[in-house]
């Protein structure tokens, strides 16, 4: 069951979200039931993990662990999910996987369908092989399609399975999934997730050598990001790649430069994809 404070989430602004949660915590920790407080603390830990403050996140979850009892099923599941997410984000997938598996099992057993799918979708990210990641994503998708309380996950699952199809070289299947994700996001009406879904469609179109079509979508996304004063490094990267594929290297150069300027600030990319950043830097010269 989702709590009222879940509406405060802005996953793009984890520091701001942490402040909102902490403000709420000071208001309720003396009067609210312990299950509610424990769940709120799990989400504070998630904001800390998204800020890569992993030690602080574990300390917050240690506090939650001391509060849990057998009557707090939702809090137990959310504790397992967030402890697993902190491990996964800090490249400790072997520690994360059993926690996600336990959250999946408890979620199904007590009818917490939304959290069960969350756990399965995380196993679809954290598992050790593409085959196991695909297996868990498909399991999550089948469960979400059958349980109304978990249908909000469909867009994310179409997206994740799409990227697994890209990884396997199945671009036609990937495009179909990204287009399904886009339709789902458009039905939801969230501008941010629609933007990402369009970007994914365009990226696969470029990989399929439908470069002009991809370029047109990315140019639309560039205009949208400029209107909202929210420049996007990934859009600039793809614009550079599209123009480079069309032998328009001089036009591509400033997009690569802007992409490097923005994406080099992303600590995850710095740690995990230094070659990608080095390529952007070189092409942006």
From TrEMBL:
TPR repeats lie at residues 155-188. It comes from the Bacteria. The keyword Cell membrane does not apply. Keywords: TPR repeat. The keyword Nucleotidyltransferase does not apply. SUPFAM superfamilies: TPR-like (SSF48452). This is Tetratricopeptide repeat protein. It comes from Paenibacillus albiflavus.
């Amino acid at each position: 069951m989702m709590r009222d404070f879940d509406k405060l989430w802005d996953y793009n602004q984890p520091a701001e979200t942490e402040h909102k949660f902490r403000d709420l915590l000071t208001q309720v920790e003396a009067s609210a039931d312990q299950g509610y407080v424990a769940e709120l603390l799990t989400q504070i830990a998630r904001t800390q993990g998204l800020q890569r403050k992993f030690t602080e996140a574990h300390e917050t979850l240690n506090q939650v662990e001391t509060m849990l009892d057998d009557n707090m099923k939702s809090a137990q599941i959310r504790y397992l999910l967030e402890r697993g997410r902190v491990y996964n984000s800090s490249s400790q997938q072997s520690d994360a996987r059993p926690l996600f598996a336990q959250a999946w099992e408890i979620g199904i057993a007590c009818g917490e369908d939304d959290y069960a799918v969350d756990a399965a979708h995380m196993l679809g990210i954290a598992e050790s092989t593409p085959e196991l990641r695909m297996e868990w994503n498909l399991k999550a998708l089948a469960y979400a399609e059958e349980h109304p309380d978990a249908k909000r996950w469909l867009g994310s699952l179409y997206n994740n399975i799409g990227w697994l199809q890209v990884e396997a070289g199945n671009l036609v299947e990937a495009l179909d999934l990204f287009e399904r994700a886009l339709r789902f996001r458009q039905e939801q009406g969230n501008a941010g997730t629609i933007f990402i879904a369009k970007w994914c469609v365009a990226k696969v179109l470029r990989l399929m050598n439908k470069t002009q079509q991809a370029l047109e979508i990315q140019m639309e996304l560039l205009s949208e990001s400029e209107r909202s004063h929210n420049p996007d490094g990934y859009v600039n990267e793809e614009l550079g790649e599209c123009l480079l594929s069309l032998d328009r290297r001089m036009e591509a150069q400033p997009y690569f430069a802007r992409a490097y300027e923005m994406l080099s600030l992303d600590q995850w990319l710095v740690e995990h994809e230094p070659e990608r950043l080095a390529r952007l830097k070189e092409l942006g010269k």
